[in-house]
Specification:
Elements (H helix, E strand, L loop, with lengths): L1 H16 L26 H12 L8 E9 L4 E8 L5 H22 L19 E8 L11 E5 L14
């Protein structure tokens, strides 16, 4: 008799310890609230991480120190600040900046397929909606505009590779 009661209690304990709720929360204070939520079809937190992983990869771009970008809807502007640890030519800086801008667009397009990817003669569907400002300079002298390798501005909807001497 004691053995049956013991087995019954042991079975109840096992059943009580093995219950797990499989109910999906309704979003009001749920476990999913901490996950990045898309804005405009883009999970910006993930995009910035991918952007940095790709364009600040010193194995691929040994001259880069940091890449920074900003989307300013109020100003309708995308700003790119590409800071280097080693000097490169204006042509190399322009080619790299052009690649970064197209790559940024393509990261957006991967998450929101309503935007066209970049092409040979296009920055792509997301970038073309914004004015683009880009600066390339040495990290250790970024505050001295006279030392910048290049600075360029491209109006929304226009395509041309980034180059020095065309800002404004």
């Amino acid at each position: 008799m004691k053995r049956r009661i013991f087995m019954l209690l042991a079975g109840l304990c096992l059943l009580c310890g093995c219950t797990k709720s499989n109910i999906v929360p309704n979003g009001n204070g749920s476990q999913f609230d901490d996950l990045p939520q898309p804005q405009g079809g883009v999970v910006w937190e993930q995009l910035w991480e991918d952007f940095d992983d790709t364009y600040a990869d010193q194995a691929v771009y040994p001259f880069i120190e940091t890449v920074n970008a900003q989307v300013s809807s109020d100003e309708n502007m995308l700003k790119f600040f590409l800071l280097l640890n080693t000097a490169i030519s204006q042509e190399e800086a322009g080619a790299y900046a052009t690649e970064v801008i197209k790559g940024f667009n393509d990261l957006v397009a991967e998450q929101n397929t309503s935007y066209a990817r970049s092409g040979e003669d296009s920055y792509g569907g997301f970038v073309e909606k914004y004015d683009v400002y880009v600066m390339v300079g040495m990290d250790d002298s970024k505050d001295d505009k006279s030392t910048w390798i290049l600075e360029d501005s491209i109006p929304a909807g226009e395509y041309r590779p980034v180059s020095a001497g065309t800002e404004g």
